[in-house]
Fold this sequence. Notes:
This protein is α/β, with parallel strands linked by helices. Helix content is 48%, strand content 9%.
Amino acid sequence: MATAAAAAATPRRRRGKGGKGPNSDLSRTLTDCTRRGDAAAAMAAFDAAVSGPDAAADLRLAAHQYNQLLHLLASADRASFPAHPAAAARCVFAHMLEAGASPSEATITSLARVVASDPEGADEAFELVATMREKYGLAPRLRSYSPVLSAFRYAGEACKAYAVEAHMAAAAVAPEEPELAALLEVSAKAGDADKVYEYMHKMRRAVGCVTKETAEALEGWFQSEKAAMAGKAEWDAQQVKDAILANGGGCHQLGWLRNGPWMVHRVSVGEDGDCGGCGCHLASVDIDMEETHKFADSVSGLALERETKANFSQFQEWLEANKQYEAIVDGANIALYQQNFAEGGFSLVQLDAVVTELRDRYNGKWPLVILHNKRVAKLMENSNNRHLIETWRANGALYTSPSGSNDDWYWLYAAIGLNCLLVTNDEMRDHIFELLGSSSFFYKWKQRHRVKYTFNKGKAVVIMPPPYSSEIQESETGSWHVPIEDNSGDERARTWLCIDRSGLTKQPHESPIANGVAQGLTPSEASNGARQRQPEDQAAPVTGKRKDRD
């Protein structure tokens, strides 16, 4: 399989004192080719080393070198590679097994990715992934299945794609948006309306906003004849309303409603949650109380593993006796906001401005500020700060996390445990929040409970959660609303797909209902029936500066 690149890439046999032999030469060549992304040169060097005139009979490669080759072949530019890389990948893998090197999950995944790109290789790729546990004791991962699903998607092999999903479920591997989009699109190609409906809801549960590629796939389905034929002309309206209530708002999951052609538009949604296309009022979807308790237990368990157990347990006990708060404040995030300039520092003035704004909003009620005790001790050295800190303490508005702790665990647990708002610009993407996984209820919780902030001429402006949820929604009249990813940070700039049956007129709306209460309220106010005052100034959010662990 040597090519013109072989002359330059062929490893030279080193002899004599200080020489390290052909394996060392090949290793350096593979490393260089990996750095340059040159699959053709790497494969030429491999061919020369194993079957060329200077090939060594005792040549042995390490497993990671085989993986380097397979990874290069999996990402090879087809235009620069002389033949289809699948054949080369099979040769590399065969040599690996003959040499007694043990494949890893990455080995099989790279091989499957290359083979799946062969027009005739999808079945072989699935076989590789499906048998890796049995043959090599390896557990497949999501990345192992993804190229196989993609291959069946483009081939229009719906039944085989469903077999892949079933194998994923048996292996406890959850599909994410790319995999669900592949399953939805292959179902759409097959004209299977029930399957499309199933994957619409799986995607609704798994993701928030969809990518542009997924949006285009959805547009293709809803504009098809099969989609127009799906649905029922009559249904029990009360049953649909009850189902939406039971599901926490935003969906009924009772099947396609109405029939006839769909109208698909790209629209914006008003600040009040009204769709600019059909006029439907989008729901505010929160996690239910069972999910809230599970979420709190998950955070508590992780915190107790990583924090001093006695300290965090003491905080839990204190919080159990002090449940009156409407808002938890991430003090360091606010005090360090936009302080990355020469005279910048820990701004207690900014923090006090946010506390004051929250008290004005909630009729004098104090929020709970979480600060590390090291921060507080430093602040108390300044007499100008001491009075303010003592005032907060006297009113139960300050909890100091102890030395050696990470206050992220404290403010996150407090907001979840009290089912209240969390004031922070923290996007919650660092290692702590990665431990929580990509669960859909974490995304929902963050969207409904996080309050962002900014400052306008020294005055704090808090940006309340929108009165609707940016997630896929199914209405009681059968229409769908799908938010598309937007990186502007401004929810008002987001584009939505409005998907509705033609001829449907705008319907009057009442406040949407979720978890048995009218929406537009803070989580704790919802149980009391008190109406929350909406913000007057919807400023664009800016992420605050992250703090270091003290």
